[in-house]
Amino acid sequence: MTAEYTPAEGSFRGRAVGVFDAGIGGLPIARAVASCLPGVAISYLADSGRRPYGPQPGATVARYVRQAERFFAGQGVDVWVIACNTASVVAPATDERLVPCVDMVEAVGRVLPPTTAGRVALLGTTGTIVSGVIPRGYPDHDWVPIPTEALLRHAEQGDASAPAVPGLLLRLRDELDESGAKHAVLACTDYTCILPAMVDALPGIALLDPLDGAVRAVRDIIRPTATDAMTTAAPASRGHELAVTGHHPVDIPALARETYGLEFTTTVTINLDRTES
Ligand code: DGL
């Protein structure tokens, strides 16, 4: 389950964390990072013009991830989060990364139950499930992979009240019952946007949100240099910034402000293909 975050001691003024998703799925992570690391500026990138990533070929999504990485390198962030499981499973290997990076495969590892906990359902997009990357990364767990692409089309708009959602959740509950899994990893960041509806529909299943793991991983990277930042104690030079690549059905700045208390001071539309030239 998603944990509440208490603000960290001290300030990380002048530091910036990039958060990347195809759409709104990274907003809860951005909010959690901002609230546990006061003074950190968020640079949020939504590849809204090319979403959804779930049904697209892995090689295509891998190219988008490289472009996002170059974008964040240009932004000068201290660390960036690939707040998208579909992108994380095709991300460059750790030793090939240009900027310190947290991905959701690593984050999943931080929220897993003990291997004695029995079968663990893995919920995600087609891309995430077909890749097999998460079960291969944690081979000691007894995985039951379940793609939920139709449910995610609603989750990625934060739309738990869509008429189709109760039926899709009922079907998922049946699948989970049949599998015998008592734990389910939410391996798509968009689930967090409809988490209350999932909790209601799936009683008896422990829903494990890697959001917690992603935020802890960011803190592990940022913490060692915090003392340096505090001694210079420069005020935050910029607020939170949003970059999008095209239309998104949700008003992202309004959702960020009203649901997550995250105020973007600027919103720009960018062309990520330009990072290749
Ligand atoms: N938030 C992305 C994930 O975690 C969503 C993918 C999509 O755009 O289909 O996989």
Task: Compile the SSE list and pairings.
Elements: E1 16-21, H1 27-36, E2 41-46, H2 58-75, E3 79-82, H3 85-88, E4 101-103, H4 104-109, E5 119-124, H5 126-131, H6 133-137, E6 142-147, H7 149-155, H8 165-179, E7 183-186, H9 195-201, E8 206-208, H10 211-222, H11 226-232, E9 240-244, H12 252-260, E10 264-269
Parallel strand pairs: 1-2, 1-3, 2-9, 3-4, 5-6, 5-7, 7-8, 9-10
Helix pairs in contact: 1-10
Please tell me about this protein's structure.
The chain is α/β, with parallel strands linked by helices and 277 residues long. It folds into two domains: 153 residues, Rossmann fold, CATH 3.40.50; 105 residues, Rossmann fold. It has twelve helices and ten strands. The strands form two sheets. The chain has a six-stranded parallel β-sheet with strand order 4-3-1-2-9-10, with helices on both faces. The radius of gyration is 18 Å and the shape is globular. It starts with 15 loop residues before the first strand and ends in an 8-residue tail after the last strand.
Low-confidence stretches: 1-13, 226-236
Instruction: For the record, give the distance between the C-alpha atoms at the N and C termini, rounded to a whole number.
Output: 42 Å
What is the makeup of the main sheet? Answer: 6 strands, parallel
- Whole-angstrom Rg: 18 Å
CATH class of the largest domain: Alpha Beta
Strands, total number:
10
Fraction in beta strands: 15-25%
Named CATH topology of the largest domain: Rossmann fold
Number of helical segments with 4 or more residues: 12
Question: Helical content, roughly?
Answer: 25-40%
Task: Provide the structure class.
Answer: alpha/beta
Question: Which strands sit side by side, in order, in the main sheet?
Answer: 4-3-1-2-9-10
Mean pLDDT: 90
The bound ligands are: D-glutamic acid
Q: Give the total of domains.
A: 2
The geometry reads as globular
**In the CATH hierarchy, what is the architecture of the largest domain at level 2?**
3-Layer(aba) Sandwich
Report the order of strands and helices.
Answer: EHEHEHEHEHHEHHEHEHHEHE
